[in-house]
Amino acid sequence: AYDGTKSLFTHLQAAGYRTALQNKQHVGPKATFPYETISGADDLTKTEAFIRRDPAQPWFLVFASNDPHSPWTRGPKYDPAKLTVPPYLHDNAVTREMLAAHYGEISQHDQQVGALLKLLDETNQADNTLVMWVSEQGNSFPYGGKWSVYDNGIRVATAVRWPGKIKPGSTSAALMEYVDVAPTFLAAAGVDPEKIDTGCPDADGRRGFDGRSFLDVLTGKSDALREVVFSQHTTVGIIGYQQPYPMRAARDGRYKLIRNLAPDNVYSIGGIHKGQPLQSWQEDAKSDPQLAARIDWLFHRPGEELYDLQNDPYEMKNLADDPALAKVKARLNRELAAWMAQQGDRGMETETAAKSRQGNGKEGGKPAKPKRARGEKTSD
Predict the structure, then answer these.
(1) pLDDT tier at 135 (50, 70, 90 boundaries)?
(2) Model confidence over 324-372: pLDDT tens digits?
(3) Contacts of 254 (CB under 8 A, 6+ apart)
(4) Are 208 and 194 in contact (CB under 8 A)?
(5) What domains are there in the chain, each with its CATH number?
(6) What pTM did the predictor assign?
(7) Which of 111, 103, 142, 124 is CA-nearest to residue 55?
(8) pLDDT value at position 359?
(9) What does the H/E/C string look like for 152-169?
(10) What sections of the chain are H helices per DSSP?
(11) Among 31, 2, 26, which residue's Cα sits nearest to residue 356?
């Protein structure tokens, strides 16, 4: 974060909350994120102590699990032969083995969530606690996932529980963004997010949140929040990247436009291109021209992609050159350009400047070879 930016922790502390983050930490600078640190994810002794410390003071806890981050070594063992492989992945033995391990670690995380909910029951806090579970991103398989703006990377799972406020079993198709989470928690805490000064102005000089509270959606007072949502991905600083490959996307209820701002560059991420699944796919592609073309797409993509998510949820058929959708593409391009301008996003200039804002630690600063970890090469 930029110096002077105030985080959700800052705003909730100002509202009288004590705040903490448990386990994985991936933020900075410390002044922006003034939380207590609770180590570990499997032992909830310190978690319980934090919750019980002062019954009169409200609290906010972010439980940041490492599961199901690769390498996938925890959880129950599933039979690879019995899995259904998503159509955007090449179906072979390596894919199935890795997918089974991934699902096992998801189950391990599910046990963690269950333990946390049980702790709320045991401390008599369940009925007065808003619990929001979200997955950070998609997995680290090729095509989509955590290093993309395809839906299997950015349409993340979310579940929310708030007894007496949110109807159990209810669902919503409302379009939301991660930036909407902070104002939602503040609204739930009785703080008006519209009056918050974030400490970081946008290109228009506004110092408020980019996000909007979706509390009314959660409580059933509204069924919509946004007409269009936006996403972006930068490769600069990711372990094993070779060339800048910025992606920007605008998505409405049916269509998604993706702009690859440097289509002449080669898309390369260590966690994908040096990983076991893709290497096995490349071997299979020697006798499979259709798979070979699919793999080539992973490295080289056009400047624009357009998908009909209603008929093509896995984004397999690019419709950017379809004349029948020219107006749709133009509309989403206008929406995306306006959003980038409001964010101060200057495309390739912003992408290449990202390196100057990254340290020389384990995440950024310069291209690096991915580290091997228990059989799987990983990156954030």
Answers:
(1) confident
(2) 999 999 999 999 999 999 999 999 998 888 877 776 434 333 433 333 2
(3) 308, 309, 310
(4) yes
(5) 65-176+214-377 (3.40.720.10)
(6) 0.88
(7) 124
(8) 60
(9) HHHCCCEEEECCCCCCCC
(10) 8-14, 45-52, 93-122, 151-154, 181-188, 215-218, 270-273, 276-285, 289-299, 326-343, 348-353
(11) 2
